Amino acid sequence: MVSFGLIDEWNPRPGRLTSWIASPSSITESASAAIHPVPPSHQQEAYLRAARRNESAGFRFSRLCLIAFDIQASLDTAALTTALTTFLRRHDTFRSWFSVETDGTVARHVTDAEAIELIRNDHGDFTTPAQIRTHVQQETPGPFDWDCFSFGAIEWEGGFTVYCAVDHLNTDGMSQAMTCVDLMTLYMNAAFGMDNALAPVGSYVDYCERERSISRELSWDSPQVQRWIDVVSAHGGRLPRFPLPLGKDADTHTRSAHLTTTVFDDDHAAQRFEDACRANGGNVTAGLMAIAALAYAEFTGKSDYLGMTPKSTRRPGNELNSVGWFTSLIPVPVTIGPGSTFTSAVAQAARSYEAGKDLTDVSFHRVLELVRPEDGIDVEPGWSVPMISYIDVRKLPGVEMFDAINGCLYGNRGSSEEVFMWINRFQDETSMTFLYPDTEIARASVRDYTDKFIGIMAAVSRQGDYDQVAPALAR
Fold it and tell me: pLDDT grade, residue 473 (50/70/90)?
């Protein structure tokens, strides 16, 4: 099973560590790149602005994403250098860096692919996982540096561990899985003379231009903009919040905490849950949003739930093989009445989810640029919302090899303002992972929420439905 969590929980096997970072000549050349006409994606721009606002946090505020996997053979450093360089040149998201100009705009600069070179550094033996974790995080630059990535190999008897640390600016969950497949394929080709084909990739810069082109065509009265305004207005003009207290001070930074627990310990239970969702017109994501709505109602006594779930913005074709930040958030409103059950809620959630998919390419960041005061939308810059994500890991590219190579995906312990939730279905287990503010109150709230959520999922798996506990609800 693929391991997920915070980098603090990554326990690589100690050994001799060699790292690869951008060469000084690459950094110098990239710094001279002129402003490119395509700006960052809306999500990248918001992320960069948040990173700039929080430079005084005292820790790495931006997200660092790490993958690692094992190879049971002696390390060929020349082959790994070739593989890593080819990987960076192959995906054009790694050619960009961003500056904040005097007029406040965030501008893209693009360096030439052939200018990307790596240097290898031998760091000697590391005796503890903590030393390795510290090294990786300290060696990887932040999102305002072009080279916000680093790579490494940790040699131990009989093999070595490859790691890749990339700022979230240039990657997402699917990209991390693709990175593992790409690097394994490229290394095997270079080290053992193999000729395994790589899938053609699209351009992340072209994707950003498409997103911005769509945004330029939007106006306040565009149907998609009005849909967003209607959804948020129905929620009091505010974005959703976690239904239980988190105990964080809005004026301070709160580091992230992480919890992973098992939902189903066999695939039969997971399949029964999926069957119940599909029998009522939904998929698993719709089922999870229905459960979130029921849990929200039981915890708060309120009937109108506004859920947010990530949606891939990749289009069919080469973009499906590209590394980059190809996601947006879509709204899934669900109303829970006194007689609502899971089966009625999932049917409604399925309709909301389908309607929300029409907003995949319409960034809420752009909507906020278009809203009028009379719309009554009260959303602050740097907004954050609770998010629920479902991934059927069995369908990820290359997943069949992840167990064999001890594949893992981790993120750094940055700042958390809200609760993010991932449900991942593996071959023999379904897990639930939370990222949330590291406070005593939040820890208790997330435990209570976890118990409620899993309890509803288990009931649906056992009996195909769930009757809410709350006898009555008030708006």
Answer: very low
Closest listed residue to residue 149, CA positions, set 162, 160, 163, 161? 163
Nearest to 205 by CA among 392, 72, 442, 33: 33
What is the pLDDT at residue 201?
A: 97
For the packed helices 342-357 and 440-463, what is the interaxial angle rounded to 10 degrees? 110
Specify the higher pLDDT residue, 6 or 356: 356
Q: Which residues pair with 366 in a beta bridge?
A: none
- Comparing CA positions, the residue from 263, 304, 300, 307 lying closest to residue 285 is 307
Question: According to the model, what pLDDT value does residue 397 have?
Answer: 67
Q: How far apart are CA 307 and CA 94, in angstroms?
A: 32
Helices then strands, counting H and E runs in the chain, come out as 12, 16
What are the strands, taking DSSP E only, across 86-139? 96-100, 106-110, 118-126
Please tell me the distance from the alpha carbon of residue 330 to that of residue 309, in angstroms, as a whole number.
Answer: 6
User: CB of 329 within 8 A of CB of 311?
Assistant: yes
Q: CA 296 to CA 457: how far, in whole Å?
A: 14
| Contact yes or no for 290/453 (Cβ under 8 A) | no
Element housing 30 (H / E):
helix 24-31
